[in-house]
Design brief:
single chain, alpha/beta, Rossmann fold, six-stranded mixed β-sheet, about 35% helix, globular
Length: about 210
């Protein structure tokens, strides 16, 4: 089985460096163009199943990518940032300095008020991947978020969440992972914007951003 992982196109909140999990935002013009480029790379692949996050930016991206039925799955939703939703890092530091310090000191286990911990989001990823392992798809597509894609990498690499910081997932990126003989492997990672700044839902510092 081949699992194609695509990160949704850029949104204005991504561009502004805002933490965005459950917050709903529209694709920017650049985001639409990113996904159109991604579509060209996968247009000749027949997907047995298309899974999509419940978030509008992922659904809109999926509708550009493929012309077939999609299945929304909450387990592919980005981590819920709770009180940090749609705020910049500076706004979080200014408005929630105590929570921000605890968050950075314990980024895996800390449950953001009204939101999720990284460990909770990872639990959803594990559930999704283990159910997928029981299916017999040749090719399937999952349109999701940067943080979730990186947690899928962590699952493939044995569950060490510190591997989260070893990868980048740009808007519109494609990752191909395969499952064979009860083993997952990372086949390829294609970054559309590898030469530019990563406008992610998270950032490679000791916390989870944008």
């Amino acid at each position: 089985m081949n699992l194609y992982l695509v990160r949704h196109g850029q949104t204005m909140s991504n561009l502004q460096g805002r933490y965005m999990g459950s917050f709903e935002d529209e694709l920017s013009l650049q985001g639409v163009n990113e996904i159109k480029k991604t579509r060209e790379l996968i247009k000749n692949i027949f997907f047995n199943k298309v899974f999509v996050s419940e978030r509008k930016r992922a659904i809109d991206s999926a509708k550009i990518l493929v012309d077939k039925e999609i299945t929304c799955d909450y387990r592919l939703n980005e981590r819920d940032f709770g009180i940090f939703e749609n705020k910049t890092y500076k706004e979080i530091c200014d408005n929630y300095p105590m929570e921000q310090r605890v968050w950075e000191d314990n980024w895996i286990d800390y449950k953001i008020p009204s939101g999720e911990s990284v460990k909770e989001a990872y639990g959803r990823v594990v559930d999704f991947m283990r159910i997928l392992e029981k299916e017999n798809y040749e090719n399937c597509l999952a349109v999701t978020h940067g943080g979730i894609i990186k947690l899928i990498y962590c699952y493939i690499l044995g569950g060490d969440l510190n591997n989260f910081w070893k990868f980048i997932s740009n808007n519109g990126s494609i990752s191909i992972v395969s499952y064979q003989y009860s083993n997952w492997s990372i086949e390829s990672i294609i970054q559309l914007n590898s030469m530019g700044r990563e406008d992610n839902e998270q950032d490679n510092s000791n916390n989870w951003r944008k």
